[in-house]
Design a protein that fits this description.
Oligomer: single chain
Distance between the termini: 19 Å
Radius of gyration: 12 Å
Shape: globular
Number of strands: 0
Structural class: mainly alpha
Amino acid sequence: ELYVRVRKKFFMKQVSLREKKMALNNAVASVEMEGYKISDNEKELCMKVLDGKLTKDEFIKIMFEKVQNN
C-alpha cells in the first residue's frame, strides 16, 4: 500500500530528493492514519526504490520475507 502510494507520484517523472522525501512522508502519514506503523527500515527501502537502487519486485520480496519471519 505504501509503495503504491509513493510510486504513483514518480511514474516516468524526474524529481528532486526533497520531493521524494515529501512524497514518502505524505504516504507514510496517510498509511499511519489508517492504523499501520511504518518502520525506519521500511522508509529506507521505499527511498531505495524511488532512487532506482531497488526494484519493485525486490521490495516486495523483502517485505514478504519480513512478514513471514514475524
